[in-house]
Amino acid sequence: PGVGKTTLAHTLAATLGLTFQRIQFTSDMLPADIIGVSIFNRDKAEFTFHPGPIFTQLILADEVNRASPRTQSALLEAMEEQQVTIDNQTLDLSTPFFVIATQNPSHQLGTFELPESQLDRFLMRIEIGYPDAEAERALLSGENRRDLVKKLQAVITPQQLLDLQHQVSTITVSSALLDYLQSILRYTRESGHFQHGLSPRAGLGLLSAAKAWASIDGRGHVVPEDVQAVLANVVSHRLVVKDEAHRHNWLETMIQAIPVP
């Protein structure tokens, strides 16, 4: 706690020009607190839908594992399909649509373990950690971070962001690279080191992240180093290591075990 996760989400929303909502998850929260609720309008003699905070472009789900599994599940359809269903009616969400979630350590009181189905819908897990000495000194001696965030200006429009996403999707992938990626997926399923292997959704996420990394590096094609660069962030929250001996070096073991094309 307190390492700047919420500030980072606010900063992303401001610089990307996206609408933003923060949802503080609590143990007594209900799915309707996220999706919205239909309230009967006596004057019109009909139900009127009042949308919840999920109807925005960037959501910060703060301390998501403090809510019950039932409430956590309200995010599932939105994250996968970019739509929600209420009263037998399907409603599309905004585009682009992102969910950033933070969680408390599992050993803290009042937390619920995130189900595997929900974890698999997050593209990446990133651990921010503590700042280095120079960055922390600048934080302590600089301007109030809330004031700095308020001054931020958008450097891109939502449409430009969608265009960039489309551009990334056109990055080419060779047959040999797909073989390499499939070897990673099969390794997690067949090596016996993990409680369960990576899903096809995880494979698609790994491919998308590798394409994005290649694009950032200025290339129009993916190389194995792109996959390796994003591998830990894409798969670490999806895998549970069986053997204590491999708990700290599973990534290195996996990379060394799979031939690079």
UniProtKB/TrEMBL annotation:
Organism: Methylophaga aminisulfidivorans
Pfam families (alphabetical): AAA_3, AAA_lid_2
Residue ranges constituting the ATPase AAA-3 domain according to the UniProt record: 1-124
Residue ranges occupied by any ChlI/MoxR AAA lid domain in the UniProt entry: 187-246
SUPFAM superfamilies cross-referenced by the UniProt entry: P-loop containing nucleoside triphosphate hydrolases
GO molecular function annotation: ATP binding; ATP hydrolysis activity
Name of this protein: AAA family ATPase
